[in-house]
Each structure stands twice: as structure tokens, then as C-alpha cells.
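Standup notes
- HV: blocked on the assembly model, inputs below
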Amino acid sequence: MKAKVHITLKSGVLDPQGKAVQHALSSLGFAGVDNVRQGKFIEMTVAETDPVVAKATVEQMCKSLLANTVIENYSVELEV
Amino acid sequence: MKAKVHITLKSGVLDPQGKAVQHALSSLGFAGVDNVRQGKFIEMTVAETDPVVAKATVEQMCKSLLANTVIENYSVELEV
């Protein structure tokens, strides 16, 4: 089963990387771009076949390794 | 209009960051995890209101700045 994880900075947390991208886009002539936020996207294959168990396992991975839950949110999607 | 951009490594391109995550997950006791690939997820607000023009503009941003098209794929989703 394929799992897709999005890890994004919580709103209110400063995102200097996003600001740098926004500034670079504006220097390249792209106008009207705002609120650029950069996060991580992780894809993986899990051997578990029960979607409920698989989702719980991947959420546990987020809590223990993939995301810093003090400043980041995570969301897990499964693709059967 | 909100745009979400996924930037992923092309298949066949080595992903040492994904490998490191996979190894760390296995060290933490998560079994059966494979093919971990890490990409980028960028959210932004664009002032353009025509979805067709907005998508074309964001794809142009991907080509010129956000993605390295030699080794990375990008996909753009718009949220009206």
C-alpha cells in the first residue's frame, strides 16, 4: 500500500525558505505571488494491507520521526 | 487562488534523503517500509483569477525556479 505524507509548517511559524522562494519569484517577474510556504512530501510503500492499521502506523512514523510536531503539521493519505 | 505544487524526484534518480529516512524508520522498529522518496511541497497564493492562466503561470514558475526538470517532476493543483 502506498502512503503519501505532507508535512507543512504550522501557520504562525516563520518560513524563511518560503520567503526566499517568494522573493526569487518576484525577481523573476512573477507578480501577484504571496504566502509561499514550503513543506515536505514523503511517499513510501508499507507492507501492511489493512488501511486503518497502515494509516495509524504512518501517523506514528510522523510523530516519532518525520515531523517536528512542535512547529509542523502532518497529513497522511493512503493509496490502495 | 491557492496553488499547491508537488516536486518529486524522477524515478531512477537516487534519493539518499529518502534512503536515510527509510533506514531511520527501520531502526525505530517500523517494519515493512520500502521505497521512501522525499520531495517538496510548496503552497502559494496567486492573484490571477483565471484558473487556466494561473495554472500556466505556476507551471512556468516550476520550470524556471521551483523544480530542476533534469531530475525532478512537478505537478500543480489549484484550489479555487
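- HV (later): unblocked. Chain B touches chain A at residues 6-8, 18, 21-22, 24-25, 28, 30-48, 57, 60-61, 64-66 (CB under 8 Å). The CA atoms of residues 7 and 74 of chain B lie 4 Å apart.
- Next: hand off to the docking folks.
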